[in-house]
Design brief:
single chain; elongated; 0% strand; mainly alpha; 263 residues
């Protein structure tokens, strides 16, 4: 039965029940409706006095409003389950690695049944790649915050460098997952391409710096390794030990990173 037909039937039934068929309604009909739409039933029950005082058209509008609100609650619960699955995947992979994170254990940690995962993701590879792409998009938003592509090369790099450091310190779980994904064959080429596009402005900045003779003529992986990997490593150490980086230490670390790639 189509959703609009079902909704129409419900409205007609309630209209008949409250405005002409109260005496004909049976307990079995009420119980049937109770098990079909418990949320809607209790909302109607809480407002029964208000409903009885209204005309038929007002009542029908009220029923439609309850159905719409109930639909929103279902969508909210659906999004909650999806987020729980993604969060469980992130934490389990970070703790045990990809191979020791089976779908059954992810489902258990997420508080859902094993079959529920397949309502949102085709398989484990799809789940991991979806999470990777979403985190990369979030990382990009952090890394490029306040970045002006027209700014001088050193200034632009400093903005991105500090943003990445703050992200590593504030979101260590997400940062660890991304790093693991960067080194696993489970992440597809298509997902890696999405990941590369997330930091394309940084690559464009380096290319402009090379054209201006400011950045050493090194390939992207080497520039990334010399200028960002040391900072990422230090951020990881400080996060594990629960320490805070002083402003002086951060400035010194940036100076070392810049010296590693400038001409």
């Amino acid at each position: 039965m189509r959703a609009d037909s079902l909704t129409g039937s419900l409205v007609k039934y309630f209209s008949f029940f409250y405005f002409g068929g109260q005496k004909m309604a049976t307990r079995s009909v009420l119980l049937t409706f109770f098990f079909l739409l418990p949320d809607l039933f209790f909302r109607l029950y809480r407002h029964i006095k208000i409903i009885f005082s209204q005309n038929e058209q007002t009542f029908i509008n009220y029923v439609f409003l309850c159905i719409i609100n109930n639909s929103k609650m279902v969508r909210l619960k659906t999004e909650d389950k999806r987020e729980a699955i993604l969060k469980a995947t992130l934490l389990l992979v970070n703790s045990n690695g990809f191979h020791a994170a089976p779908m059954s254990k992810i489902a258990t940690n997420a508080g859902v049944s094993a079959g529920t995962i397949y309502l949102y993701f085709q398989n484990k590879e799809d789940l991991v790649n979806t999470l990777y792409r979403e985190l990369k998009a979030k990382f990009s938003g952090h890394a490029l915050y306040g970045f002006n592509p027209e700014a001088p090369v050193k200034k632009g790099f400093e903005v991105i460098w500090n943003n990445i450091l703050r992200y590593k310190l504030s979101e260590p779980d997400e940062a660890t997952f991304i790093e693991q994904c960067d080194n696993t064959p489970m992440v597809t080429d298509a997902s890696r391409e999405v990941g590369l596009k997330a930091v394309q402005p940084l690559y464009d900045l380096w290319e402009r710096g090379q054209q201006e003779g400011i950045i050493k003529p090194l390939c992207r992986p080497m520039l990334y390794a010399f200028s960002l990997f040391p900072m990422i490593y230090v951020a990881g150490i400080y996060t594990k030990e629960g320490k805070e980086l002083s402003r002086e230490a951060i400035d010194a670390a940036f100076g070392a990173s810049w010296d590693a790639i400038r001409t």
